Amino acid sequence: MRLSVYVVDCANGVAATDVGVQLRARAEGGWRKVTCGQTGSDGLLSLWSGRPIDPGIYQLVFDLDQYYAVLGMVSLFPRAIVEFRVRDPNADLHLPLVTTSNSYSTFSADS
């Protein structure tokens, strides 16, 4: 199973570099951090690779405040939280995030 994200800053027309991303799993009483990282200069980040992931509900938390602060901007959305379901522990998931300082959108680009 592979899980990756791609962050695009649509307003500036660039891949979003150094966006902090956290993967969390739903657990009893809240959320449990699974892993985290930052997007590279190409906007890509591989969060999970090689082994199956437990089926369940997960969240990707993108730190937009930090990203836009570096650009001298204030984001309307401090974080973009994308909740998704894993049914097949061996399926590859690619979840892009398209953002501006006032919006974000996501979709599945399963590979």
What do you see in this structure?
The protein is mainly beta and 111 residues long. It has one helix at 64-70, and strands at 2-9, 14-15, 20-27, 30-38, 44-49, 56-63, 79-86, 93-100, 103-106. Strands 1, 2, 5, 8 and 9 form a 5-stranded mixed beta sheet that branches. Strands 4-3-6-7 form a 4-stranded antiparallel beta sheet. The longest helix is centred in the middle third of the chain and has 7 residues, at 64-70. The radius of gyration is 14 Å and the shape is globular. The mean pLDDT is 94.
Question: How are the secondary structure elements laid out?
Answer:
Elements: E1 2-9, E2 14-15, E3 20-27, E4 30-38, E5 44-49, E6 56-63, H1 64-70, E7 79-86, E8 93-100, E9 103-106
Parallel strand pairs: 1-8
Antiparallel strand pairs: 1-2, 1-5, 3-4, 3-6, 6-7, 8-9
Concise description?
With 111 residues, the chain is mainly beta.
Shape: globular
**SSE order, one letter for each helix or strand:** EEEEEEHEEE
Q: Would you report the number of β strands?
A: 9
Note the beta-strand portion. Answer: over 45%
Oligomeric state: single chain
Features:
mainly beta; single chain; 6% helix; 111 residues
